[in-house]
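Quick entry, no commentary yet.
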Amino acid sequence: MTKPRILTGDTPTGRLHLGHWVGSLENRVALQREYECYFIIANVHAFTNPSRAENPGDIRQSVLDITLDYLAAGIDPAVSTIFVQSEIPAIAELTFLLAMLIPFSRVMKNPTIKDEIRDKGLGDDYPFGFPMYAVGQCADILAFRPELVPVGEDQLPHLELCCYVARRFDQQFCGVNSHTEDRDYVKAGGVFPVIQPKLGRVKRLVGTGGPSAETGQLLKMSKSLNNAIFLSDEPDAVKKKVMGMYTDPNRKKATDPGETDPAKNPLWAYHETFNPDKAWVAETQAKYRAGQIGDVDCKRKLVEVLVALIEPMRQRRLAFEKDPGYVLKVLKEGTARANVAAEETLYLAKQAMKQDYFPRTLTL
């Protein structure tokens, strides 16, 4: 490795939205020339959702959509590697090997797994592959032995599991002392680094809709909840979504203007996140609390801010859409490079496990 390495990516569930941008994607764009970057499109994980598995063509289209979004957002395939998970055999092998190190009970205690079972209404009917994908995410990451993983806050439990299995492997098969500092595991002879997360500047971007009926908390932006603004939305679509955005209904009922709380209002979460004019935000929030300005004026300003961010990406995406051969070329070349790195890791892991019987060459 000539540079420190990054691994992160997305499960293909459709086009990317503003939550993806502030959660991880803008970090990837900013760091790609400083780090050796691998960006995985985890299409195998998409099959863990039974309703999605019934429509494999949609998963294929989502892979292409995410690639277009990456390119449009500024990921440069000349310096970054974009690849398809299902075309990296080493990940599947590592998933099986690493699964031997993780108790099933620990996987099922993962709060993200619990939340997804609840949010997707899976009950007890989810496939065995659903909890297995938590182990698969460990393999996705460790196959590339990165130092850093840019993620959203909701992915931290997966990274904790990844760190757990890296320590277990290095201690059991490489003789690394359990008292070794996390940053020193590879120096001490381990195959896998104990990776560090890099959170986006916004831990959890709320959606355009209202709060959860169960918790009363504003819901995270999500395509499945129909509360997302996409990086490929046309200006008219952005305007429609912003002008229809949920705002605190108690604002109009407040007898004291000081009772108006912008924190309960996605409108202000978005201004604080995306509006570069911080002086305008502070001044207008004060007016909002005092009842001197309404939701409509603030929403119109937000439309301007978001269109200024999204429209350049959308235009670049339209240009890339005209050359589907180029998009496939980016994926093929990136997947070929990713296989080299993953095969090296698999060899080192098998060597540590005394299971390195024959050399193997993989070509794409």
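second:
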Amino acid sequence: MKALRGKTIVVKYGGGAMINSELKTAVAEDIVFAAAAGVRVVLVHGGGPEIDLMLKMAGKEIRFVNGLRYTDAETMNIVQMVLCGKISKDICALIQHAGAQALGLCGLDGGLLKAVRVKAADIGFVGDIKQVNGKLLENVLDSGAIPVVSPVAMGMDEDEGVSLNVNADTAAAEIAAALHAEKLVLITDVSGILRNVLDADSLISVASRRELDEFKAAGVLSGGMIPKAECCALALDNGVKTAHIIDGRIPHSLLLELFTNEGAGTLIKMNDI
């Protein structure tokens, strides 16, 4: 706990921990506990299930291309409404009920996140982050509040003034890099990186940045774990000390990972173990 006092950590909050009421409360309590211990916490959230629900209510097709949500103009409006409106405010309320101040921000606020539209595929208003206004987040942290960031970015260049949907894991990694954070923590619905996805007991507790590439080449990483590992690599390559992929299905997994030797997932370091 003493080693993290005054340090910045960026937590990406998503998956089942955003749906289960007990887990939602536990995450908020973990964030507040860490902040009370002197850790500077930035929370970046997802919200796929709630976006899907709202799209169904609006009669919109739900479609993904290479793991990214196809986002036409109407879908973008719904994404922005759900992420920056309901989910952001719900999380802020949970944190404040747990005893700390929270400030909801999205990439449009203060030019926090700026992005260009993804050109590799026709997926609509989906962006690649190019700039992070780290100073804005530092100012919020200096005020004693916990920033709660929604992954909607401000368009650049030919998309100036347009809202773009950005991946929450990537947003968290880019923010961690911009803040020279001590840790990036991704809260997921799995126990961490498994050597064998069919064997829950094959958890890799500690790995190096080099091993991430080896795991990918060997097929150890598959499905949604590939982009999460890539986000960890991005953060480590840009100066973040450690990255963590933890099991959000375990109550208080964030505190277990930060403040115990056993942890609650996979710890990834830049250098070989």
